[in-house]
Amino acid sequence: MHKLVLASTSPRRSALLRDMGIVFETIPSAFIEPDHADGRTPRTHVTSNARGKAMDVAARLKAGIVIGADTVVVLRGRVLGKPSSMNEARRYLDALNGQTHYVLSGICIADAAHGRVLAAAEKTRVTFRQLGSHEIERYLELINPLDKAGAYAIQGHGAIIVERIAGCYYNVMGLPLARLETMLMQWGCSLFDCMGPVSRGSTGPTRTTGVHKRRHP
User: What is the pTM of this model?
Assistant: First the structure.
């Protein structure tokens, strides 16, 4: 079985792997994500961030395949990351209200033992219902929008505000699993081979290693 390491503190990404019974370790990356810069495509932005996260953790290990990911919302060419305040979260939802946007995730796998790196991006089209102001305010009360790209999550209460999607649902959650499997298969690895003996209703074991953030040069 290959050792998998998730370079992320995202509870949603961890849950996606854990709920399938995949055995993995969590080591948060110290990579500092830069703000999106003009002239840099959203695809380049998320793949670069995913690569930075994966390579930061891989450099500290002797073995293992490290998974890095970064997700943003793109509305008419504008990148919406995690809002810095509730007011910004409200502005994000007002802008997305009744509109179609894209969720773009960069994903990178880094082989700590052999120095191999593979990166890609996945895009999903998402359309919001036309929401009333009360719905937006109530939604913001029910979730923590500050840790979510675009200030929303498709799962949970997001089922009420999202009208339809085209593409990978799990990409909107932050980890496009089918794309990840395709990438791993290029290295002779499979998520199916990383699943531990899991009884019905239980989840696979994980281990988290803490790290202090440092600024990426």
Answer: 0.86
